[in-house]
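Milestone M4 deliverable, item 7.
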Amino acid sequence: MAEDPRPGRRTFPQRDPPFPSGHRCTGLPHLSWITLGATLRKWVDSLPELDSGTFDTVGNPLPFDKSLIFPYAFRHSFAQRHADAGTPLDVLRDLMDHDDPRTTLGYYRVSLKRKREAVKTLSLQVVDRLGAASPCSPLAYEQRSVAVPFGGCTEPSNVKAGGQACPIRFQCSGCGFYRPDPSCLPTIEDHINSLRADRETALAMDAASFVVDNLTAQIVSYEEVTEKMRRRMANMPDEERAELEEAAAVLRRVRAGESRKLLPLTVIQQDKE
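Output delivered:
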């Protein structure tokens, strides 16, 4: 297997290029990306108006923006359609030739159906600030809580403000309304590392002891939560744990908020002979 210089990707040797070159003088067995892009652009520009499936403010159909059709966009559409069909993340990662599933997550947006399934799974794994189980209904997970930097929050005024009005300025580890779940683990662990760095800085600055003590208390609290969640996951059957990890990845993708416009592709069902 050949190494790809781009992070998170891997390449495999190809004996038969999908787009073989028609001219030997190029020295390449396949079309260059410049030639392929120019040929695709010429073909796309010759197409009649494409329906985008969207409408303007008065209900008139809007055409699809043809500038969004370029070779690499098909890779994103490939990933999106597999995701919509329910292809598991690890399978789609292999289909995309990615080493890191986080790279794959950047290629598609999550459908409402998959989000609901993920919420249903994660709502049963919610814990409180001490790491004790605090499951809730999917409705409560989505409508009676709000995402905050390191998990979920059920404090009424903060929920009403969409997570922008924390009464104690996001010191989640000391809040009785804090409700993290396994989908928040990477974020919490990154925050723990940041708190450790802040503590080292505070010590180097000869900061007051209460500053250092506060940072230490937060680190200990977050570590206790993450340890209990990981221990609970480790005790799950393999299939159940895999389902939970998949749901957590889906919700992290939702929170990332990235989305790309899909190409106007139509699936053609061929008649079987």
